[in-house]
Specification:
The chain contains ten helices and two strands, in the order H-H-H-H-E-E-H-H-H-H-H-H. By secondary structure, the chain is mainly α.
Length: 252
Amino acid sequence: MTTRKAAPAPVARRFGWYDPRRWLTAREIVIVSVLTLLCGGLLVFTRLAQYVEIGKVSSFDERLVLALRTPGNTADPIGPRWFEEMMRDFTALGGTAVLLSLTAAALVYLLLIKKRGTALMALVAIGGGIVASLLLKDFFDRPRPDLVPHGSFVYTKSFPSGHSMLSTVTYLTLGAVLARVQPSRLLKIYLIALALGISAIVGASRVYLGVHWPSDVLAGWAAGSVWALGVWATTHLLQRTGKIEPEPKEKP
């Protein structure tokens, strides 16, 4: 009489909570990636803030600011005049007037497509980011660079870069919020990539114009990214719990 071999244990039983089918779903990979980036952004900002508290400007900051000026003439940024003017145009994308206008336009769009809860979430998130940026500037009270003449009018403190932080907060927040109401995966990727690209250009323009140390811009990017990622996670949670409009079914 032959004995029948026992059927192999299910994957979940053999691997317990390490079941790869349960841990490697696309949604969970995205969530883990967002949390990892959020923690990384917090670490970067904290380390830069500790460095600023010492009250010294690193040689890296000084070398990069001077490298963007014509040798022997610190009043002249490198490159032709049309490039300098173009960088002023780019820096304007992180200005208060542009960001508020863009936010208003995005909020109207969300209201027109009946996403009132999402619109309110975006308004609170961007408004909170503006307040956080101003509070951080007042707290650290870092002077602006004095190595070169400023290529743009400034009236607030230097750390973190307000243009870098607010452009990252606004563009990434709007990009994430608008991406979550789009059914097309390609549109989602495009909106996030566009937000990242604009934020990068705005930050780079601030160093080129001599109104910020590179460390100010890095801190602005880090703080803005942390804020935007937190907004994304909160929006995801509110949509999953039905507090705001759900994300439409994704199309390839």
